Amino acid sequence: MRIKIDQWEVLRALELYFKTEYGVDCDLVEGLHTWPVIDYQERILVKKKHKNGRVVKNENGYDEIDYSKTTHKKASIEWSEFDSITLFLPAQS
Question: DSSP label at 34?
């Protein structure tokens, strides 16, 4: 099942959370001067290489990833009005 949540729905949920948990009454949808910023970790994949510098290929011809040398870097993105979060949930039976 796919659930898509728009930005304004998340901001309304945050307003309710702030009010119930911290007693802070605010209007995030109309009251923000700038868009919210999301900080996240971006994975930098490193490909395995032979001693001569050529990339190692697996049996299907794809480049192999060297997970021991894979790093992460911090990144940020502005979450604008028309952005959303999509969650894919397992089907309920």
Answer: S
